[in-house]
TrEMBL record:
<dbReference type="GO" id="GO:0006281">
    <property type="term" value="P:DNA repair"/>
</dbReference>
<dbReference type="Pfam" id="PF00270">
    <property type="entry name" value="DEAD"/>
</dbReference>
<dbReference type="GO" id="GO:0005524">
    <property type="term" value="F:ATP binding"/>
</dbReference>
<comment type="similarity">
    <text>Belongs to the helicase family. Hel308 subfamily.</text>
</comment>
<dbReference type="Pfam" id="PF14520">
    <property type="entry name" value="HHH_5"/>
</dbReference>
<dbReference type="GO" id="GO:0016887">
    <property type="term" value="F:ATP hydrolysis activity"/>
</dbReference>
<dbReference type="Pfam" id="PF00271">
    <property type="entry name" value="Helicase_C"/>
</dbReference>
<dbReference type="InterPro" id="IPR022965">
    <property type="entry name" value="Helicase_Hel308"/>
</dbReference>
<dbReference type="GO" id="GO:0043138">
    <property type="term" value="F:3'-5' DNA helicase activity"/>
</dbReference>
<keyword id="KW-0067">ATP-binding</keyword>
<dbReference type="GO" id="GO:0003677">
    <property type="term" value="F:DNA binding"/>
</dbReference>
<feature type="domain" description="Helicase C-terminal">
    <location>
        <begin position="231"/>
        <end position="431"/>
    </location>
</feature>
<dbReference type="InterPro" id="IPR011545">
    <property type="entry name" value="DEAD/DEAH_box_helicase_dom"/>
</dbReference>
<comment type="function">
    <text>DNA-dependent ATPase and 3'-5' DNA helicase that may be involved in repair of stalled replication forks.</text>
</comment>
<keyword id="KW-0234">DNA repair</keyword>
<keyword id="KW-0547">Nucleotide-binding</keyword>
<dbReference type="InterPro" id="IPR036390">
    <property type="entry name" value="WH_DNA-bd_sf"/>
</dbReference>
DNA sequence: AATCCCTTGTTCTAGACAGCATGTC
DNA sequence: CTAGAACAAGGGATT
C-alpha cells in the first residue's frame, strides 16, 4: 500500500500532518512489510500512530477493504488494552475491520480467528498460544507497546520468550519503547530498523526545585512564592492559580495520601467547580457500601480539589479520579507508579517527590527511565504552552541525583530471563506446545533469546536451564521432552510448575477437607506473593490454628500464607468488606486484587485435584464462592445472571433458595430485588430452560 | 500522682499479567 | 551502595 493511501486514511480521523518521528519511520521503510522496527521516542510524541500505520498497511488494501490478514497489538496493562480497544474499534470498524479485545478476564469471542485486529497482553497471547491458536499463520504484523518492559523483573521474561517465538514467523514486528539506554542492542536483536528521536509536541522544561526556586536545566530560574513551609503545596499552588494542574509522584501509598490531604485548593475553586466536585466525592462514596476509611479520605480530598491514586483504589475509584482530572475538576493527583505507565493523563506540571523507593533489597534509587516517564507526563497538547517536569530536592545528595536523572540517558535494559519462576513456566510452555522437542531445540531456542544476545556466554544460563529441566522431569511434567498430561494442563492453566507441585503435594498430604486448608494451599504459591504480614502478637494463635489443621511447617512464610487464607475465608463467609479491610489493614483495591488471584489459583487447584484423582468438588465450590465472596448456601442463586452476593442473600433470607423458587415466585422475587431485574433474570432463565428441555 | 516533653525504639514501605468449557447428531 | 515518616514506649522533669 503506498504511503499516500495511509495518509488518506489518517485524514479520515482528522490527522492532516505527520510528526517528525512518524515521518522518519515512513522514510525508513515502515511500510515495507518485512522490516521490523524499534521506535524509541518520548511519551506522547505519537508512538502509537506509528504502530497504527503499520497495522493499516497490513490489514487494509488499496481500496480500504480488509485484506483478511491479522494484526496484534500488545499492551502492558489490561486497563490500557480496554482503552485501545474502544479507540481502535471506533476508528477502524468503518473499514470493515473486526477488532477484538482478549485479556485475562474478558474475551470478545472464543473464536479470535474471525477478527482482524486483536488487542491483548503478552501473557494472554502466550496463554492463547498454549491453547493452540490455529490462526498464527494469518498474523502478519505485531505491534508491541512499551517493549522496554522486557526489562521488568517479574514480567519481562514472558515478553522476551513471546518475541523470540514471533521472530521465527514471517511477521513484521514493531516495538514501541520509551527512551532507553541501549536501543541499538534491542533493535539488533529484533533485526529492526531503529528510530530514536527526542521530539515532543509540547516543550518539556525540566527543573530541580530547591530552597524555593526551580532551577531549570536550560538555565532559567523561577522563584516560587512560599505560602507555607510545604514545598509541594507551594509548587502546586503556583501552577494551579495560573489554570494548570499537577501530578505529584510519591514512593509510597501513604505518602501519596498524606500529600493529597495537605493540598487544600478550595481557595482556587469556583463555586461551579465546588458543586461538581461534591458530586464526584459522592460518587466515590457510593462505590462501596458502607464507604471505607480510604473512600472517606479520598472524598474529603476531592472536595478540596485534590486526589490520590494508587493500587489500593478499586478500578471504579481510579476511573472517577482520572475522569475528574481530565475534566479539570481535580487540580492535582498524588500518586504512586500507578500513573507512570501507560494511561494517557497529561498535566501541566509533573512533580517528582521521591528519588528512592523501598525494594526487597532495601532503599534504591528509582530508575532514571521511570522518572523520565513520570515527568514526560507534563504538557497538555493545545492546553499548555509548555510542560514542566520538576524534581523536588530535599538536600544536596538529592540535588546531585536529580541533575543526573534529568540530564543523563536512561539505564540500559537487560534480559530478565534468569528469573527462575519465569524460566520454569516458560520452558514448560515451550515443551507442552511441542516447540521444544529435544536438547537441540532447546539450545537453538535459547540462542535466539535476548538473553543469549546480550550475554553471549551461555554457560551461566545453561546451569539455570538444566536445573529447571531436571525439575520438570523429576516432577513428571515431562519425560524426555515429551509433555505429560499433567505438564500440558499446568501449561494451559498458566501457573508456575512449582505452584502446581505445591498444590499436588498439599492435596496428597491433606488430613482433612476444611475450606481453609484449600485456601492455605493456594496462598502458598508464588503467584499470591506478597502475602499479608504477620505481627509477633499473632504468631502463636496462627500456629495453634495451623496445628489443628495438620499443617506441620511454621516458617514465617507459612504463617503469612495462613493469614492470607484466613482473609480469603472471611471474604467467602460474607464478612462485610469494610470489616475485612480493617482487620487485615489493607485497602479495597488490594483485597480485589488478592481475590482475583485466588479465584484463578483455586481454579488451577481444582484442575490439579482432578488430574491426581482427588475430590475436586470442594475447590470448585470455593472457586465460585471466592468469585462472589459468598457462603455456600447461595451458590445456586449466584449462578443466575444478574444475581450477585447481595441480591442472592436477600432472596435466600426471604426463602427463595434456588432457580425453581425464582420461577415459581416471580412476584415475590420482584418485591425483593425489583421488577426490572426480575424480568431480565426470567428472560435469561427462560432461554436456558428451553435448552435443557431439549436434552431431556 | 498526673501530665508533659523529649528521646529512643519499632514498624513499615509500588504495581498487577494469567483460567474458564463441552462434547456429538 | 541509596531512608525516613509515623507511631509507640520509656524516662525524666514539671505541676
Amino acid at each position: 500500500m503506498p504511503t499516500n493511501k495511509i495518509l488518506e486514511i489518517l485524514k479520515d480521523f482528522g490527522i492532516e500532518e505527520l510528526r517528525p518521528p512518524q515521518k522518519k519511520a515512513l522514510e525508513k521503510g515502515l511500510l515495507d512489510k518485512n522490516k521490523n522496527f524499534l521506535i524509541s521516542i518520548p511519551t506522547a510524541s505519537g508512538k502509537t500512530l506509528i504502530g497504527e500505520m503499520a497495522l493499516i498497511n497490513h490489514l487494509l488494501d488499496e481500496n480500504k477493504n480488509p485484506t483478511n490478514k491479522k494484526g496484534i497489538f500488545i499492551v502492558p496493562l489490561k486497563a490500557l488494552a480496554s482503552e485501545k480497544y474502544e479507540e481502535f474499534k471506533n476508528k477502524y470498524e468503518r473499514y470493515g475491520l473486526r477488532v477484538a479485545l482478549s485479556i485475562g478476564d474478558y474475551d470478545e469471542d472464543e473464536d479470535l480467528s474471525r477478527y482482524h485486529l486483536i488487542i491483548t497482553t503478552a501473557e494472554k497471547l502466550d496463554s492463547l498460544w498454549r491453547h493452540k491458536i490455529d490462526w498464527i499463520d494469518d498474523v502478519s504484523v505485531v505491534v508491541v507497546d512499551e517493549i522496554h518492559l522486557i526489562n521488568d523483573e517479574s514480567r519481562g521474561g514472558t515478553l522476551e520468550i513471546l518475541l523470540t517465538k514471533l521472530k521465527k514467523f514471517n511477521i513484521q514486528i514493531i516495538g514501541l519503547s520509551a527512551t532507553i539506554g541501549n536501543p541499538e542492542e534491542l533493535a539488533n536483536w529484533l533485526n529492526a530498523e531503529l528510530i530514536v528521536d527526542d521530539w515532543r509536541p509540547v516543550e518539556l522544561k525540566k527543573g530541580i526545585y530547591k530552597n524555593g526556586i526551580i532551577e531549570f536545566i536550560n538555565g532559567e530560574n523561577r522563584e516560587i512564592k512560599a505560602i507555607n513551609n510545604n514545598d509541594i503545596y507551594n509548587l502546586v499552588v503556583d501552577c494551579v492559580k495560573d489554570g494548570g494542574c499537577c501530578i505529584v509522584f510519591c514512593n509510597t501509598k501513604r505518602g501519596a495520601v498524606n500529600e493529597a490531604k495537605k493540598l487544600n485548593l478550595k481557595k482556587f475553586l469556583t463555586n461551579e467547580e465546588k458543586r461538581k466536585l461534591k458530586e464526584v466525592a459522592e460518587e466515590i462514596l457510593s462505590i462501596l457500601e458502607p464507604p471505607t476509611e480510604m473512600c472517606k479520605t479520598l472524598a474529603e480530598c476531592i472536595l478540596n480539589g485534590s486526589a490520590f491514586h494508587h493500587a489500593g483504589l478499586t478500578y471504579q475509584h481510579r476511573k472517577i479520579v482520572e475522569d475528574a482530572f481530565r475534566n479539570k475538576l481535580i487540580k492535582v493527583i498524588c500518586c504512586t507508579p500507578t500513573l507512570s505507565v501507560g494511561l494517557n493523563l497529561p498535566c501541566r506540571r509533573a512533580i517528582v517527590k521521591d528519588l528512592t523507593r523501598y525494594t526487597n533489597r532495601g532503599m534504591r534509587y528509582i530508575p532514571i527511565m521511570e522518572i523520565q516517564q513520570c515527568i514526560g507526563r507534563a504538557g497538555r497538547l493545545g492546553l499548555d504552552p509548555y510542560g514542566e517536569g520538576i524534581i523536588v530536592a530535599k538536600n544536596d545528595r538529592d540535588y546531585l541525583r536529580s541533575y543526573q536523572v534529568l540530564t543523563q540517558k536512561p539505564e540500559p535494559i537487560y534480559s530478565k530471563l534468569s528469573n527462575q519462576a519465569v524460566l520454569r513456566t516458560q520452558l514448560l510452555g515451550l515443551i507442552a506446545t511441542i516447540e521444544i522437542r529435544d536438547e537441540y531445540d532447546l539450545e537453538w531456542f535459547i540462542r535466539n533469546t535476548f538473553y543469549a544476545y546480550q550475554y553471549g556466554n551461555l554457560r551461566e544460563v545453561a546451569k539455570n536451564i538444566n536445573e529447571v529441566i531436571r525439575f520438570l522431569e523429576e516432577k513428571e511434567f515431562m519425560i524426555d521432552f515429551i509433555p505429560t498430561e499433567l505438564g500440558k494442563r499446568v501449561a494451559e492453566l498458566y501457573i508456575d510448575p512449582l505452584s502446581a507441585k505445591y498444590m499436588i503435594d498439599g492435596l496428597n498430604e491433606m488430613e482433612n477437607e476444611d475450606d481453609i486448608y484449600y485456601l492455605y494451599l493456594i496462598s502458598k504459591t508464588l503467584e499470591m506473593m506478597p502475602n499479608l504480614r504477620v505481627y509477633k502478637s499473632e504468631e502463636l494463635n496462627l500456629i495453634d490454628e495451623m496445628e489443628n489443621l495438620g499443617i506441620k511447617s511454621f516458617e514465617i512464610e507459612d504463617l503469612e500464607a495462613f493469614k492470607t487464607a484466613k482473609m480469603l475465608y472471611d471474604w467467602i463467609s460474607e464478612v462485610p468488606e469494610d470489616e475485612i479491610l480493617k482487620k487485615y489493614k489493607i485497602e479495597p483495591g488490594i483485597l480485589r486484587y488478592k481475590v482475583e488471584n485466588a479465584v484463578w489459583l483455586m481454579h488451577a487447584l481444582k484442575e490439579m485435584a482432578k488430574i491426581i484423582g482427588k475430590n475436586s468438588e470442594i475447590p470448585e465450590k470455593l472457586e465460585i464462592r471466592l468469585e462472589y465472596g459468598a457462603k455456600e448456601d447461595i451458590i445456586e442463586l449466584l449462578n443466575v445472571k444478574y444475581i450477585g452476593r447481595v441480591r442472592a442473600r436477600k432472596l435466600y433470607n426471604a426463602g427463595i433458595r434456588n432457580v425453581e423458587d425464582i420461577i415459581n415466585n416471580p412476584s415475590k422475587v420482584a418485591s425483593i430485588i425489583g421488577e426490572k431485574i426480575t424480568k431480565k433474570i426470567l428472560e435469561d432463565l427462560g432461554i436456558k430452560f428451553g435448552q435443557q428441555k431439549l436434552i431431556f
